[in-house]
Design a protein that fits this description.
Blueprint lengths: L5 E4 L5 H10 L1 E3 L9 H10 L2 E3 L8 H5 L7 E3 L10 H6 L3 E3 L6 H16 L2 H9 L20 E5 L3 H14 L2 E5 L15 E2 L3 H7 L2 E4 L13 H6 L4 E5 L8 H9 L3 E6 L18 E3 L8 H20 L8
Parallel strand pairs: 1-2, 1-3, 3-4, 4-5, 6-7, 6-9, 7-8, 9-10, 10-11, 11-12
Helix pairs in contact: 1-11, 5-7
(2R)-2,3-dihydroxypropanoic acid binds next to loops.
Length: about 325
């Protein structure tokens, strides 16, 4: 059907989502699921009216500064758009959309999973059992620290930060603090049970576990650097399910090696899929491979958001989730 816009996905999407794209557009799936290199990405921008990229892709300024571009909408499959030069896309008249809201609960659940795993030493304990080094229960064996009653400091207080606050306060009896550069209206967060702190240093100094929920932008790059890590309480824990760029991972490795921090739980990394040297060798970190939104329900919901944005765009309606 030559009159239908060409919509291309850079990776495999949930079957239900691909089926809808296939019914409504000239859909070009990526059957091999192999990531596009930069030449393939440039060709995709020349071939597709709508492109559906994701966080594992790279769409830097260079792609928007040279050559012809056919693509009119980048419907990102995901909420974070730090992998896209949004300014460059806009300058070429390309609309960018994302998928806010639908991965909030899933990512908040994963944050609690990391908090529990790292504070209770679950990764280390499971590795020990699997390697045949567990010789039975003992009063002083495999001790972690209790989560209940501890103070959780949340950096960034958008949808996911708030969902984490609610779970931690109401589900696990934690005291919850938060810091965000623009303090929100108290009426919008009272029900989470969280209390604001005026600056980041205060939050870091008061928290037993710090969880990051800010976007990966130039202003949050290495927000948690060596000196901020030293501001954290000795024996505290750091959780990152936001973006790798928010943490100076080399400084984190040092803080963990020196036992200033008791542990870290990471789902995102500075140079995904590569890990900063030293991280893998540390026993007091839990390392997950960017699975914050990885449930079938959430990935389908993300895909449906991309469908809605592409549909609205080609119908000539305002897109629901512009970036
Ligand atoms: C996002 O949507 O930005 C996530 O990181 C993907 O899970």
């Amino acid at each position: 059907m030559p009159d239908r816009p060409v919509v291309m996905a850079t990776r495999r999407l949930p079957d239900r989502v691909e089926a809808i794209f296939g019914r409504e557009f000239q859909f070009v799936p990526n059957r091999s699921d192999r990531p596009f290199d930069q030449a393939e990405m440039a060709r995709a921008l020349q071939a597709a009216d709508g492109l559906v990229p994701c966080v594992a892709d790279r769409l830097p300024a260079a792609l928007f500064s040279a050559g012809p571009i056919r693509t009119k909408i980048l419907a990102n499959f995901g909420v974070g758009v730090n992998h896209i030069d949004v300014g460059g896309a806009h300058r070429r008249g390309v609309v960018v959309t994302n998928t806010p809201g639908v991965l909030t609960e899933c990512t908040a659940d994963l944050t609690l999973l990391l908090i529990l795993m790292v504070m209770r030493g679950a990764g280390r304990a499971e590795r020990r059992l699997r390697s045949g080094r567990w010789s039975g229960w003992a009063p002083m064996d495999q001790l972690g620290v209790s989560v209940s009653g501890k103070t959780l400091g949340i950096v960034g207080f958008g949808r996911i930060g708030r969902a984490v606050a609610t779970r931690a306060a109401q589900g696990f009896g934690m005291r919850v603090l938060f810091w965000t550069p623009r303090p929100p209206d108290p009426a919008t967060y009272q029900e989470t049970g969280a209390a604001p702190r005026a600056n980041l240093s205060e939050l870091l100094a008061e928290s037993d576990v710090v969880s990051l929920h800010c976007p990966g932008t130039s202003s949050t790059h290495h927000l948690i650097n060596g000196s901020r890590l030293r501001t954290m309480r000795p024996g505290a824990f750091l959780i990152n399910t936001a973006r790798g760029s928010v943490v100076d991972e080399a400084a984190l490795v040092s803080a963990l090696r020196e036992n200033h921090l008791a542990g870290a739980g990471l789902d995102v990394y500075e140079q995904e899929p590569n890990l900063t040297p030293g991280l893998l060798e540390l026993d007091n970190v839990v390392l997950l491979p960017h699975v914050g939104s990885a449930t079938i329900e959430t990935r389908e919901a993300m895909g449906m958001k991309a469908v809605e944005n592409v549909r609205a765009f080609f119908r000539g309606d305002p897109v629901p989730d512009p970036v």
